[in-house]
Design brief:
293 residues, mainly alpha, MetI-like fold
């Protein structure tokens, strides 16, 4: 019994640094944010308790439209990243000449500092001297300069393209590692039995990398949902709010308008919303993978 207690205390001693980190870096700021969301905190040194008025005000300010826009933005961005990342991982795993070079060329979007990469895309989206507008004019598709970021629809999809460009390398490398962990004997046995390349991918590769795909999709979902740099640098939520997502709206409220209480309420809603969405997504994908197995 004494040995068991010593082992238990030793385990808690090893977990203590992680527990301190979680309490100090995660739990305390989260609790303080939730507490602040029930106040009218601003630049004033004092603030009052206002109850749920901040939350009530949120849903009377067009926040529902922002939620829908955020979901659409996240869905398309994550879906495209997973499709391209999975396809890229399969191709990079194939025995083709120059495979090492292709793997190296996959990394620049991830290695280049995010702000530099985004500014590069902003330059390419420019209507007067941007590369995209220039190429479309040379091809005869456009008859004059077209400022992509000046129109709501094109700006929305432009931010998605930029986010995909930045996120695909990480997804590709992660899934490539998962594919390489599959025992080669399985593919060899299937090949001997006459199974084609697509059949082997559908019956061997895909089922065995499903856990990695679930993990990667959740990580990508959380990162994309909370993406701030891309939209802010490209459009700052414009034009006319067409690219304003929940995180952009929270920043504008808390930092731009100095309404810290309302901003905290928006941040708390994002946390609750994202946690619930991730939990539902994980349950659905886990059930789907279990049925497929």
């Amino acid at each position: 019994m004494e040995t068991k207690n010593r082992t238990l205390w030793f385990v808690w001693f090893l977990l203590l640094p992680a527990l301190i980190y979680i309490l100090a870096i995660v739990a305390y700021p989260l609790i303080d944010t939730i507490k602040l969301s029930f106040t009218n905190a601003s630049l004033r040194q004092t603030y009052d308790w206002v109850g749920f008025s901040n939350y009530t005000r949120i849903f009377h300010s067009g926040f529902g439209e922002i939620i829908i826009r955020t979901l659409i933005w996240t869905f398309f961005s994550v879906s495209i990243k997973m499709i391209i990342g999975t396809s890229g991982a399969v191709l990079l795993n194939a025995a083709v000449p120059g495979r090492t070079l292709f793997r190296v060329l996959t990394m620049p979007p991830w290695i280049v500092p995010m702000a530099i990469g985004i500014f590069m895309w902003k330059w390419m989206y420019n209507g007067e001297f941007g590369m995209i507008s220039g190429l479309l004019q040379r091809a005869g598709i456009l008859h004059g300069p077209f400022p992509i970021l000046a129109y709501g629809d094109t700006a929305f999809w432009a931010t998605i393209v930029t986010d995909v460009w930045i996120g695909v390398p990480f997804v590709t490398i992660y899934l490539l590692a998962a594919i390489q962990s599959i025992p080669g004997d399985l593919h060899e046995a299937a090949w001997v039995d006459g199974a084609g390349r697509f059949y082997r991918f559908r019956r061997i590769t895909l089922p065995m990398i499903v856990p990695a795909m679930i993990t990667m999709s959740i990580l990508s979902l959380i990162s994309t949902f909370n993406s701030f740099d891309i939209i802010w640098i490209l459009t700052q939520g414009g034009p006319n709010g067409e690219t304003t997502t929940m995180i952009i709206d929270t920043y504008r409220t808390a930092i731009g308008a100095y309404k810290f209480g309302e901003g905290a309420a928006r941040a708390a809603l994002i946390c609750v919303f994202l946690s619930a969405f991730t939990w539902v997504y994980f349950r659905l994908v886990s059930r789907f993978s279990a049925e497929a197995a």
